Amino acid sequence: MHISEGILSTPVLAAGGAAALVGTAIGLAKMDYDRIPRVSVLSSVFFVASLVHIPVGPASEHLILNGLMGLLLGWAAFPAILVALFLQAVLFQYGGLTTLGVNTLNMAVPAVLCYYLFRWGVVRFKTRVAVVFGFLSGSFGVLAAGILVGGSLVLTASPLEEPAFAIVILHIPVMAIEGVLVAAVVSFLKKVKPEVLGASNAKPVDKV
């Protein structure tokens, strides 16, 4: 869902850049030293996952994994995504430097929302229920990112409404794929490394 340079209007670019800067500052403030390795690993995962992309109008379709990043990083997803997008723009010309703020915002805001909406279920319940929250997080992350990308285009110019709608529709298969992937990761971590999910001291409430 990288938005290319030369598409968005200056006000949208400025507002997106300012909002991304605020989100990144909050993420850095909440990121303690011990979490830096985890942030680095997930930033790398995001970088690699979104390298394989299919152009869709002014944007592109690819795996995002922002739902997973939200579950594991919370606000720290902002700096993690910013770094990955910056490297993609510089090394592979995906997206661009002028759209870096907007692209970061479109990917990281859904990640933070997933943290608040679904992480409690992943932490609180046992595996069979937790994976449902993982699936919802993965799917919602893609859906919300698609809506924000579409909104960025619509705010720039009304002729972009059609490609904006197409971006959301074409990412429905990605929603399903990412939902399954995040559910699988949650299942694995619940069994092998529950403390990564913050579940080490949590008492599961279901018996399934």
In words, what does this structure look like?
70% of the residues lie in helices and 4% in strands. It has a single domain, classed as Arp2/3 complex 21 kDa subunit ARPC3 (Orthogonal Bundle). The chain is globular, with a radius of gyration of 17 Å. A two-stranded antiparallel sheet has the order 1-2. With 208 residues, the chain is mainly alpha-helical. A hairpin with a 2-residue loop joins strand 1 and strand 2. The termini are far apart. It has eight helices and two strands, in the order ααββαααααα. Helix 1 packs across helix 5, helix 3 crosses helix 5 and helix 6 runs antiparallel to helix 7.
Q: Can you lay out the helices and strands and say which pair or pack?
A:
Layout: H1 10-30, H2 36-49, E1 53-56, E2 59-62, H3 66-73, H4 77-92, H5 100-124, H6 127-156, H7 161-170, H8 172-192
Antiparallel strand pairs: 1-2
